């Protein structure tokens, strides 16, 4: 468990506000996510479910997509918020998308309505991730 520091407070508040917008009529499990770009700007997403179930998009991927459409390609923090006692980690599919846009040592936080926090590094969530670095014509430079 980690503490909600002043540095993390804006991410926490943004993720909490995003969870209020969740479209989760099937699971009744609202999720909000906030990601912080290197310039300090914060982008948010909520889960958007679908009657076909499989077309559901998680809050993590929607938040990252919001940053990407604003021109951001690298993020230095991610906060998940769920209004329940358990602290929710990102799903497997989202871990792969996180590995694309976050460095391996970046902290990924999960928070809840009790202001409790848990954190993992990207590397802990997805060890030996397949990233663009493995693609033959990748222009992405390893930064660590
Ligand atoms: N969900 C997320 O948005 N993020 C997570 O980290 C875990 C799961 C969503 C998907 C679905 O709408 C609902 O939570 C239940 O799985």
Automatic annotation (TrEMBL):
<comment type="similarity">
    <text>Belongs to the cytidine and deoxycytidylate deaminase family.</text>
</comment>
<dbReference type="InterPro" id="IPR016193">
    <property type="entry name" value="Cytidine_deaminase-like"/>
</dbReference>
<dbReference type="InterPro" id="IPR006262">
    <property type="entry name" value="Cyt_deam_tetra"/>
</dbReference>
<feature type="binding site">
    <location>
        <position position="58"/>
    </location>
    <ligand>
        <name>Zn(2+)</name>
    </ligand>
</feature>
<dbReference type="GO" id="GO:0055086">
    <property type="term" value="P:nucleobase-containing small molecule metabolic process"/>
</dbReference>
<keyword id="KW-0862">Zinc</keyword>
<dbReference type="InterPro" id="IPR002125">
    <property type="entry name" value="CMP_dCMP_dom"/>
</dbReference>
<protein>
    <recommendedName>
        <fullName>Cytidine deaminase</fullName>
        <ecNumber>3.5.4.5</ecNumber>
    </recommendedName>
</protein>
<comment type="function">
    <text>This enzyme scavenges exogenous and endogenous cytidine and 2'-deoxycytidine for UMP synthesis.</text>
</comment>
<dbReference type="InterPro" id="IPR050202">
    <property type="entry name" value="Cyt/Deoxycyt_deaminase"/>
</dbReference>
<feature type="binding site">
    <location>
        <begin position="47"/>
        <end position="53"/>
    </location>
    <ligand>
        <name>substrate</name>
    </ligand>
</feature>
<dbReference type="InterPro" id="IPR016192">
    <property type="entry name" value="APOBEC/CMP_deaminase_Zn-bd"/>
</dbReference>
<keyword id="KW-0479">Metal-binding</keyword>
<keyword id="KW-0378">Hydrolase</keyword>
<dbReference type="Pfam" id="PF00383">
    <property type="entry name" value="dCMP_cyt_deam_1"/>
</dbReference>
<feature type="binding site">
    <location>
        <position position="91"/>
    </location>
    <ligand>
        <name>Zn(2+)</name>
    </ligand>
</feature>
<dbReference type="GO" id="GO:0004126">
    <property type="term" value="F:cytidine deaminase activity"/>
</dbReference>
<feature type="domain" description="CMP/dCMP-type deaminase">
    <location>
        <begin position="6"/>
        <end position="133"/>
    </location>
</feature>
<dbReference type="GO" id="GO:0072527">
    <property type="term" value="P:pyrimidine-containing compound metabolic process"/>
</dbReference>
<dbReference type="GO" id="GO:0042802">
    <property type="term" value="F:identical protein binding"/>
</dbReference>
<feature type="active site" description="Proton donor">
    <location>
        <position position="60"/>
    </location>
</feature>
<feature type="binding site">
    <location>
        <position position="94"/>
    </location>
    <ligand>
        <name>Zn(2+)</name>
    </ligand>
</feature>
<dbReference type="GO" id="GO:0005829">
    <property type="term" value="C:cytosol"/>
</dbReference>
<dbReference type="GO" id="GO:0008270">
    <property type="term" value="F:zinc ion binding"/>
</dbReference>
């Amino acid at each position: 468990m980690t503490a909600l520091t002043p540095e993390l407070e804006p991410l926490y508040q943004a993720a909490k506000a995003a969870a209020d917008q969740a479209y989760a009529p099937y699971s009744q499990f609202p999720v909000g996510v906030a990601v912080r770009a290197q310039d300090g700007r914060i982008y948010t997403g909520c889960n958007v479910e679908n009657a076909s179930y499989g077309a559901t998009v998680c809050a993590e991927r929607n938040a990252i997509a919001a940053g990407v459409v604003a021109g951001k390609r690298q993020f230095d923090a991610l906060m998940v918020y769920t209004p329940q006692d358990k602290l929710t980690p990102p799903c497997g599919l989202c871990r792969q998308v996180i590995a694309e846009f976050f460095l391996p040592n970046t902290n990924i936080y999960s928070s809840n309505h009790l202001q409790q926090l848990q954190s993992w590094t990207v590397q802990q969530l997805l060890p030996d991730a397949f990233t663009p670095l493995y693609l033959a014509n990748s222009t992405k430079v390893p930064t660590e």
